[in-house]
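W.,

You were right to be curious about this one. When I first looked at the sequence I had no strong expectations either way, so I just let the prediction run and decided to look at it fresh. Below is the sequence, 307 residues in total, followed by the output.
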Amino acid sequence: MVAKLTFSLPLRFLHQCSRCRTWSARPTQKASIPRPFSTTSLRHAIAAPAIDFSSPDKLPPPNVQNARVVPASPSYFSGRPDFTDNLLNLQALLRKYQTLPTVAPGQAPRVAWRTVSQYRLLVGEPVRASKYHQVLEVLKRLNQIHPAVMPPNLHKAMQIYKRDINPFAVVKRPAIIGTDGRACGIGRRKSSSAKVYLVQGEGEVLINGKSINDVFGRIHDRESALWPLKATNRIDKYNLWALVSGGGTTGQAEALTLGTAKALMVHEPDLKPALRRAGCVTRDPRTVERKKPGKLKARKMPAWVKR
């Protein structure tokens, strides 16, 4: 047994015996002497030997097993590398050529850019429409550069974003007056079509070989068919022959309106502003809405019955 201590020590320096439940001083441990740390021996143990880059002959042979392919573009690790590269390239071109003279937005060459679905097929990436809109904004700004000073590399960079067929480049064949002095105009409305021949005369009108009163019983349809001539005060200066087919009387009358206006503009091109103000030049694209399954008509639903 260990004798009891006559002086008090903190509990951290005392030890209690598990048998006799007496307290004794803990045995002291020798303080460890720190050894000097040397990085030289550690470096020789775990690090590779230093490489001498002074001459190519002293370089170690390349290790093919540990070699890796370095991406050509920093955007390789992004979600859409091709789209990112395209956008960055266009922005770099814009910063480089933004000081070149430009034309007004309405006078810039009309270009049909690729749609977002066509661009996705081109790059093979799921590009969002909002992201592709950023590309279009830069392209529209680059397209405003004057064509006389546009650099060839810029024109080549913009070419991949254009459609294969530009609908704005299609030039409409001008209508001419035939040898017999008549001009032809074709008009359509709903499912009706009309082919109108106009020649200078006294105001005779024949539609499918009949008079206008026999073809159209409503006064409104008669007014619509001859409205281009009445709006320009040419009702008694031209003879009109027309062939109409398809649809009903209203569709045929409005198809005659467009066809007559086109034939009249062949004789007198200066009347186009007046005909446009009269509403005779624009083709009306409205058609009957198709019937849907489960409905009585295009939108009419069957009557709801509770029981």
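Here's what jumped out at me. The mean pLDDT is 86. And, maybe more interesting for your project: Residues 249-267 form the longest helix (19 residues).

Coffee later to discuss?

I.
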